[in-house]
Amino acid sequence: MIEIKNLCATIDGKPILNGVNLTVKAGEIHAVMGPNGAGKSTLARVLAGDPSYEIEEGSVLFHGEELLELEPEARAHMGLFMSFQYPVEIAGVSNCDFLRTALNAKRKAKGQAEITAEDFSLLLDAKIKQMEIKPEFKQRSLNEGFSGGEKKRNEILQMAVLSPSFAILDETDSGLDIDAMRIVARGVNELMHEQMALLLITHYQRLLDYIKPHFVHVMLEGRIVQSGGPQLALELEARGYDWLAALPISE
User: Fold this and answer.
1) Quick one: CA dihedral 138, 143, 148, 153, positive or negative?
2) Cα end-to-end distance, the chain, whole Å
3) What is the spatial distance between Cα 83 and Cα 136, in angstroms, rounded to a whole number?
4) Are the CB atoms for 242 and 224 separated by under 8 Å?
5) Cα angle for residues 134, 138, 144 (degrees, 5° grid)
6) Domain-by-domain residue ranges, the chain?
7) 70 contacts: CB under 8 Å, gap ≥ 6
8) How far is residue 83 CA from its own chain's centroid?
9) pLDDT in tens, 83-122
């Protein structure tokens, strides 16, 4: 589904990504772990199309098309979704209006008719119930006054409505208590299917107790230095990251 080859990126002339290689297939869940400053969130932002970063080298094929040549909106219309570590608040724009506009933009890009307000309300009600979100959130301004857990749950609600083929969750577990994390993880697991791929970016093993990855990758200094199965996350939990610095890079 997505194939990243030798991806190098800078910001303000400072190298951040230094040759990232990663392939994620449909139906797979990949976790990217690493210490602060390793380049994990930068990788997510570059894939989403953040213009702050300069691509120096490499390619990213998404559904066989060069992703790096596309505007962020086009990437989203193709099925890429990103959940932010710190979701923004937008005053004056209701959650319902935001989600319907986003869905209709995606439908328009695919040549489909817009969903009516009535049909969208029914769809949103079903997704809100699934995510255990209070119904009154429909009319509240986007993320305004939401707790950290509510913001993260609301982003998974966005994922449920938009039905992406490739989702990137950037430290979704950040700031969540155990109950909120279980609810968010359950929602993510319910949304996963064999035609969808998921990239989890996290510091900690605890999220992976609830969303089980097929593969775990470790980033250090802007590149993936080690890859393995779920047991790699357990080893990182026990040993930290320092021991990886001396190992040869595992593609």
Assistant:
1) positive
2) 18
3) 22
4) no
5) 90
6) 2-246
7) 49, 78
8) 5
9) 877 777 788 888 889 899 999 999 999 999 999 999 999 9
How much is the pLDDT for 199? 97
Q: Is the dihedral of CA 210, 189, 162, 127 positive or negative?
A: negative
Quick check: helix, strand or coil at residue 160?
A: helix
Find tokens 């577990």 and name the residue. 173
- Amino acid at residue number 112: Q
Beta strands in 25-151 (DSSP E): 29-33, 54-62, 65-66, 80-83, 90-94, 141-142
| CA distance readout (Å), 245 to 39, 40, 219, 240, 241 | 15, 16, 10, 11, 7
Residue 215 pairs in a beta bridge with 30
State the residue for tokens 């026990």: 238
Superfamily of domain 2-246: P-loop containing nucleotide triphosphate hydrolases (3.40.50.300)
224 touches 17 (CB < 8 A): no
Question: What pTM was computed for the model?
Answer: 0.88
